[in-house]
Design brief:
This is TauD/TfdA family dioxygenase. By secondary structure, this protein is an alpha+beta fold. Helices cover 26% and strands 25% of the residues.
Length: 334
Amino acid sequence: MSLFPASLLDVERQPGRPPMVRAEITGDAPRWVAEHRDALRAAVAEHGAVLVRGLGLRDPAGTGAVFRLLATDLLREQEAFAPRRTYPEEGVYSSTKWPPNQQMCMHHELSYTLTFPGLMMFACLTAPAEGGATAVADASAVLDALPTELVRRFEREGWLLTRSYNEEIGAPWAEAFGTENPAEVERYCRANAIDFAWQKDGILHTRQRRSAVVHHPVTGRRCWFNQIAFLNEWTMAPEVREYLVDEYGADGLPFNTRFGDGAPIGEDIVQLLNEVYEKHTAREPWQAGDLLLVDNVRTAHSREPFEGPREVLVAMADGVRLADCAPTIEVSPR
C-alpha cells in the first residue's frame, strides 16, 4: 500500500522519461497550481519527480508566485559552489552558471550541508535550441545498482568535500557564505561541522565529511545522497583539471571529493558512478513554460550540455535536516 494518497492528476509514465502531468492551460498558471497543489505534491511524493507541461510560465514574477504556492518554505542558498543570479522575487535563482558545453553530473542539491532542500523546483522560461535537459535519476535504484563493497565503504566512512575559495573559479567565499566578514564565516563553519583554514593569500580552505547514504525522512528508504561524482576532479574537463592543477596544485582545486578517511577517489570509481547514474537516467527536453518538481533526497538531477539561450529558474524549498535522515556517520558541530 502506498504511503501517499493517489494523485488526482493523470501522470504519464514512459520508460526513460520523467513522470509528466499535462496542465495545458491558457490562463492563470498560479491559479491552476493553487487548485492542484496537494495533488502535485502527492505526485512528487509518489514518483520522486514530476514534469508539469503546459503551464505557460513566462517571467520571474509568475514563476515566483508558483514556487511560493508549492513550497512549505523557500530556502536561501548557502555554501554555493558556483555563482547564480538572484532575482527580486524571494527565493528565486537562476540555474547555476556552468559552461554550456559541459555536463553537470547527477547530484543532490546542497547534499554537503546540514540542512538541504527537500524539494527542488525548476521552471523553463527559454528552452535551448539543443540539449540542456534537467535529467533525473532515482537515488534508491542507483544505490542498489552500485557494488556492495563500495557502498559499505562509503556508509562506513562517508565522503569528504574539500574546497579552496578563490576569485577565479567557483563562488568566492563572501558569496558562498553570504558575508564579507571572516569571523562570520568561521562561526558558520563551526556551527556546521566544517574544518577551515585561511591561507596567507586570503584563500579559504575547507573540509567537511558527510554521509553518502541517508534514509528518506518520510519513507525511510535508503538513498545514495551526495555529490561525490559531480564535485570530483575527474568529472572536470581534462583541460580544465590540468590548468587548475598547474595553477593551484592538486590540493588547491576549487572543489574535490574524497573517501571519508581522506583517501583519493580514483577516476575509475567516478566513471563507475556516472555510468550507473546514466543507466537510471530519465530525461525530457525542456519546453518553454515547463515546471519540474524534484524530491531532492529521493531523486538526483543533472544538467546536460546545450546550445542556444537557456533560461531555467530554480527554487530550493522545504528544508530537511541531515540529522533527520539517519545518516551513517556522526556529524558534530563545534
